[in-house]
Write a structure and sequence with these properties.
Elements: H1 2-20, E1 22-23, E2 29-30, H2 38-69, H3 75-109
Helix pairs in contact: 2-3
């Protein structure tokens, strides 16, 4: 039964994919979405890494707070929890400082002539591969 269900599911996905793509008379495929360029992907990855770093620091901060609450007054556990919280706050501060420095470099100092991908498009700085 499970194999039949898997086969039907795979067949359904193939049918949907075939219906979504339309081949033109020139042999090219018209997709129902826009394929992202290299600049879009790199810009997304840079922004995602900063987001992930901030999320990790916030989770570490919450882990330190939870450790402090559950330390039940033990001085050694309280000290470990305080160290976790301090490390998370320092990480968040460093992350914000790096973001401010990059934004200042991109927009104020270099006036958009150099871009890392946070506040401007990378289009002018990455080579085009498929043009």
């Amino acid at each position: 039964m499970k194999k039949t269900l898997n086969a039907l599911t795979a067949f359904g996905f193939l049918a949907l994919a075939k219906a979504a793509m339309a081949v033109t008379s020139g042999g090219t495929v018209d997709l129902p979405f826009v394929v992202p360029t290299l600049t879009t992907v790199v810009g997304f990855l840079i922004k995602f890494l900063f987001f992930f770093a901030g999320l990790a620091a916030l989770l570490y901060l919450l882990l330190g707070a939870f450790s402090w609450v559950t330390s039940s007054g033990d001085k050694e556990n309280v000290k470990k929890a305080q160290d976790k919280i301090q490390a998370a706050v320092v990480g968040l501060v460093i992350l914000v400082v790096v973001l401010v420095i990059i934004a200042t470099l991109e927009q104020v100092i270099l006036k958009g002539s150099f871009c890392i991908g946070l506040t401007c498009d990378l289009g002018a700085n990455l080579p085009t591969l498929l043009d």
